[in-house]
């Protein structure tokens, strides 16, 4: 994918899979689905519970990766990795709202925010600066078989 296409793809709504090094025992990296936010040229934002294993490992590592994919043909994905450059603790209310409205329709987003008001106070927001990108777009490949 071109730089423009990969950034546009990542900015679209996908559930991301966060990956972070897990030094506990002989574990593979921790991989977990997350809601995220991204604007072309900006930082990847991931919100999670302050005391979660995910947050602890991101803090310890100082970096994480995120992969977003299109789950129907023609398949596409963007994977990005980089350092954590800031942590918002607590998460600004506007960020909670923006993330909820990114993934849910307005009525469901409002209900989600109200129902999770107490839990959301326990979240932190990691800012990651994209450093390495990996992408694939199988559109041309799929067209050969249509």
From TrEMBL:
Pfam families: Pyridox_ox_2 (PF12900)
InterPro entries given in the database record: F420H2_bilvrd_red/Heme_oxyg, Pyridox_Oxase-rel, Split_barrel_FMN-bd
Record-linked Gene3D superfamilies: Electron Transport, Fmn-binding Protein, Chain A
Keyword field: Oxidoreductase
Protein name: Pyridoxamine 5'-phosphate oxidase family protein
Organism: Streptomyces silvisoli
Lineage, broadest ranks: Bacteria, Bacillati, Actinomycetota, Actinomycetes, Kitasatosporales
């Amino acid at each position: 994918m071109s730089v423009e296409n990969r950034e546009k793809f990542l900015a679209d709504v996908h559930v991301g899979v966060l990956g972070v090094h897990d030094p506990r025992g002989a574990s593979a990296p921790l991989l977990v689905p997350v809601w995220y936010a991204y604007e072309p040229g900006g930082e990847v934002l991931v919100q999670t519970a302050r005391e979660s294993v995910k947050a602890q490992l991101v803090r310890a590592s100082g970096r994480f990766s995120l992969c977003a994919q299109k789950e129907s043909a023609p398949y596409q994905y963007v994977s990005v990795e980089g350092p954590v450059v800031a942590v918002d603790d607590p998460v600004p209310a506007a960020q909670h709202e923006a993330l909820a409205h990114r993934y849910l329709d307005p009525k469901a987003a409002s209900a989600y925010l109200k129902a999770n008001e107490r839990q959301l106070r326990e979240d932190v927001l990691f800012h990651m600066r994209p450093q390495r990108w990996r992408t694939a777009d199988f559109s041309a490949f799929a067209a050969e078989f249509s």
